[in-house]
Specification:
single chain, mainly alpha, 56% helix
Length: 105
């Protein structure tokens, strides 16, 4: 199991147990909310880090886009930064953060 999944599982289990998810940053609150929604029909799997990690790993394998979404939100919550994401087709894609000054393309 990858370390990010374990970290997310710990945050979800802790957030549910202590309700810290509601006072956390927007990205973490959004992440916990999406995971709670995904496991709405079986909330008990999110009560411990171990069961949450196993449930998330299974769900991430089943739905790679959900994994990508959760990992992006996790990274955003950890850095407080903008999480750029692009899906689809394009000839050129530019993603940036903290641009100071002009940009010429």
């Amino acid at each position: 199991m990858d370390p990010v999944t374990l970290a997310i599982a710990g945050a979800v289990a802790t957030g549910i147990a202590t309700r810290t998810g509601e006072s956390a940053g927007t990205a973490l609150t959004t992440l916990i909310g999406r995971i709670r929604d995904r496991f709405r029909d079986r909330p008990a799997v999110l009560e411990s880090e171990e069961s949450a990690a196993a449930a998330l790993e299974t769900e991430f394998t089943r739905d790679p886009m959900f994994r990508q979404d959760c990992h992006g939100l996790w990274n955003q919550a950890q850095t407080g930064a903008v999480a750029n994401s692009f899906t689809g087709q394009a000839n050129n894609v530019i993603q940036a953060r903290d641009v100071h000054g002009d940009i010429t393309l």
